[in-house]
From TrEMBL, chain A:
Pfam families: MaoC_dehydratas. Residues 7-100 form the MaoC-like domain. This is MaoC family dehydratase. It comes from the Bacteria. It comes from Haloechinothrix aidingensis.
Automatic annotation (TrEMBL), chain B:
GO terms for biological process: fatty acid biosynthetic process. CDD domains: R_hydratase_like. The lineage of its organism: Bacteria, Bacillati, Actinomycetota, Actinomycetes, Pseudonocardiales. Belongs to the UPF0336 family. This is UPF0336 protein H0B56_03945. Residues 6-137 form the FAS1-like dehydratase domain.
Amino acid sequence: MTTRVGDELPQLSVRVTRGDLVRYAGASLDFNPIHYSDRVASEVGLPGVIAHGMLTMGIAGRVVTEWVGDPGRVLSYATRFTRPVVVPDDEDGALVECSGTVTAVEDDVATVSITAKFEGRPVLGKATATVRLT
Amino acid sequence: MGLDQSLIGRSYPPSEVYEVSRAKITEFADAVGDTSPLSRDAGAARAAGYPDLIAPPTFLTIVNLGAIDELVSDPDLGLDYDRMVHGDQSFVHERPVHAGDRLEVTTHVDSIFARAGNDFLTLRAEIHTDSGELVCTGRAQLVVRGEQ
């Protein structure tokens, strides 16, 4: 398989529930209460409990790791956090839709531009990963 | 009140060692929904040429958070944690993190500036083994919202 500029990576849609936020809090050791407490979230002016930006980054990174089949081939990964993912306290949670496009290929390294959307709007800005192809 | 720009360039002594366990790698992979066998099955990881289970690309957020906490607890900076948000994050890996790694983080303040009433601070977290091998450089922009 030859990777070319413009190649689209397989898309990924992930539902994030409050339970997922609790699990990620424990795994990442990020216990900021805005990620589980409606009371604290509202006190700091948020529209509700929001997902950890790093969780959204981690989920969106799967577009690349699942494409190459090896998380160890990701050389770099960067993003801005531009908009919060608000996670309601129900069974459906929030739907995050992720995709990726190859923007450069040099030697054995591809650069992938990643998008992650919630309610149709981007939540990550300039999300980019570089990945070794073999 | 703006952050003190004279603190640009400040760095902190290396953190305590964080020892990466197989269990934590798999727990973190589960939390982001990463199903790679290389983060779950040591035999599969070795067959792929790694010494042990390897971590997902954002795993070092665990260590990076320690670097952020280091800054938050520095009274000279006076960061207001309640008004702070994570503006951006990057990781540049020298190699994948694997189970058994003994990691330390050295934290540096790379920039401080104010814009539109908000303070922006960029920290650089150099994550290295306890024998000095650089594994990853993390950069985070922290935004402290101005009091309205």
